[in-house]
Amino acid sequence: MKYAFPDNFWWGSASSAPQTEGETLAFGKSATIWDRWFAEQPTRFHHGVGPQHTSTFYQHWKQDIALLKELNHNTFRTSISWARLIPQGRGEVNQEAVKFYNQVFDELHAQGITPFINLFHFDMPMVMQERGGWESRDVVTAYAEYAQTCFELFGDRVKHWFTFNEPVVPVEGGYLYDFHYPNVVDFRRAATVAYHTMLAHSLAVKAYHERHDGGEIGIILNLTPSYPRSQNPADVKAANIADLLFNRSFLDPALRGEYPKELVALLREYDQLPACQPEDKALLASGVVDLLGINYYQPRRIKCRDSQVNPDSPFMPEWFFEAYDMPGRKMNPYRGWEIYEQGIYDILTNLRENYNNPRCYISENGMGVENERRFDENGQIQDEYRIDFVSDHLKWLHKGISEGSNCLGYHMWTFIDNWSWCNAYKNRYGFVSLDLATQKRTIKKSGEWFRETAAKNGFDD
Ligand code: BG6
C-alpha cells in the first residue's frame, strides 16, 4: 500500500460535550457561558440556533457508539462537561452525570474503542464565570478539583486525558476579538486568562502524574504555522511574533514547562505581563505533557505592518503584524479558510527539530462546508471534497512519520455534524450527516472512505 500507517495507529474522530450532548439544562446540568450568552443575545448565533440544538448524544450515545464502530474507529475523543458533573462548579457531584459518563466509557470499551477524554472545551460553567472565570485564581483551583474528581471517577477506564482543547480560542474569542462570552476586548485581561489557563493545566497534569495509574495526560492545541510574506527581516519578525503570541504561548509551557523568553520580554516591554506568584514557575514546570494533541485547520500568512500604529490605541497583537492574503493560495470554497496540507508536515517537523520529537497525534483536522447538500438518489451526501481534504493531509502526515515524527494517530473533526458555537450549523464537518429535525443520521461518502482506510490502516492514491 502506498500510504501505510504504523501498527496500532489511532484512527478516529473528535467531538465535545457542549457540541453534542444536548439536554443543556436537564439531568442536573447547570448553565455554561454558552447557555447564558444565547439567552441574552440569540441573534449572535447563526440563524438563532443555540446550544440546546445538538445531535443529543445524551440520548443517542449507544446508537452513536455503534456508528463509530461501524466506521472502524479504534479511538474517539469527546469531553466531560464540568457544568454537568459538578453543577455548582465546586462540591457536590451530580450522580446522573456519573451514570451517563460511566455508560459512555463502558460502551466505548465494549465496542473496542479507546476513549480520549478532554476536560474543558470552551464550556465554562456560568457559576464559575460569575466568580471571575479564568481571570480568577479560585477558578484555577476549582478546575483542578474538577479534574481530580474526573480522574477518581473514571480513571480506571480512561487512560488518555486532555486538560484543554484549544486554550487560545477562549482567550481570543472572549477577551480579544469578541466572538465568545464574556465579550471583553482587553489584551492584559486576555494575557491573564491565558496564563491562568496554563496554571490550571499544570495543576491537573501534576495531580494526574501523582496518581501513577498507567495512563497519560496531554493538551490539545490548535497550531497555526505562521508563514511570513517574504524573507525580509521585518516580515520574518512579524511572523515570529504571531507565532509567539498564538502558538508558543501554549506550546512552550506544555512541552518545555516554561514560557519563551522572547514572549516574556515582549510583554514586559509593553507592560502587559500578568501577575505571577513565586510558586508559579515550579508549577508550570510540572505541566509538561505526555501527549500533545494537534488541531490543524489552516496556517497564518503574515506580513509586517504597512502603517504605523497609533500609540494611543489599545495594545493588541495587530500592533506587530497584519494578515497577508497570499495570491494564489488554495481556499476551501465552502468555508473561507485556506487549505494548506503541508502545514501538518511543517508542524511535525518543527516539533521534531525544536521540541525533542514529542508523542503527539492529530487531534482535529477537517473541512467545514456551508449548506452541505450534495445528496445522491439514496439521500447520501457525496462529499468527495472531504475525502480529498483528508487524504491530502494524511499524505503529508505519512511523510512526517516516515521521517521520524512521533505522531500516533489521526482524528477527524468530526464524527457527526454538530452545533458549533456562534456558527451553530453553518459549517458542517461530520462523517455522518444529521437531520436536526428528525435526528436521523446518515453516513456520508467520506465516512465510508474512512471506514475502509481505518480497516486497511492506510490507502493508495
Ligand atoms: C475547532 C473547534 O477549532 O473548530 C471546534 O475545536 C469547532 O469546537 C471547529 O466546532 C469548527 O469551527 P467552525 O467555526 O468552522 O464551526
Automatic annotation (TrEMBL):
Active site residues per record: E364 (nucleophile)
Signal peptide: none
Pfam families for the chain: Glyco_hydro_1
The organism's place on the tree of life at top rank: Bacteria
Keywords: Hydrolase
Gene3D superfamilies documented for this protein: Glycosidases
Sample GO molecular function, one term: hydrolase activity
Family, as annotated: Belongs to the glycosyl hydrolase 1 family.
Protein name per UniProt: Glycoside hydrolase family 1 protein
